[in-house]
């Protein structure tokens, strides 16, 4: 029974991305064979702006990008529209410039995107 309970707690903790801390607090040590693999769609870390832009056509030029933290705080109509981007050779870093729109009003015309390395970016699909 305890082995079953132990595995269920590990699976639930992995789904939330907090397995290590929770199991340590409970005083449990799991071997690598007992820890189930993370589901394919679940990623503990988000993506930065460059990782997202590298997946899009034309390197993300002309695409709107928004931070998840802005959406959580109610700034639904705030975004960066990327107009120029320079990737580092690894494709995960670089510099990006664009137009910043805050609460529906253009605040910064052609400026450097601040916080582009932070891992909480999403792209806004173009309206069809």
TrEMBL record:
Species for this entry: Diacronema lutheri
A molecular-function term among this protein's GO annotations: structural constituent of ribosome
InterPro entries listed in its UniProt record: Ribosomal_mS34
Cellular compartments per GO CC: mitochondrion
Entry-linked Pfam families: MRP-S34
Domain of life according to the entry: Eukaryota
Signal sequence region: 1-19
Protein name: Uncharacterized protein
Highest classification ranks of the organism: Eukaryota, Haptista, Haptophyta, Pavlovophyceae, Pavlovales
Keywords: Signal
């Amino acid at each position: 029974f305890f082995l079953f309970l132990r595995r269920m707690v590990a699976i639930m903790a992995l789904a939330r991305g907090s397995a290590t801390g929770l199991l340590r607090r409970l005083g449990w040590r799991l071997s690598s064979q007992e820890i189930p693999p993370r589901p394919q769609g679940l990623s503990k870390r988000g993506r930065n702006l460059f990782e997202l832009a590298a997946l899009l056509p034309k390197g993300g030029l002309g695409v709107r990008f928004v931070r998840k933290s802005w959406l959580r705080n109610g700034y639904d109509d705030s975004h960066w529209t990327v107009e120029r981007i320079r990737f580092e050779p690894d494709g995960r870093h670089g510099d990006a410039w664009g137009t910043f729109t805050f609460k529906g009003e253009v605040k910064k015309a052609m400026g450097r995107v601040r916080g582009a390395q932070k891992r909480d970016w999403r792209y806004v699909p173009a309206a069809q």
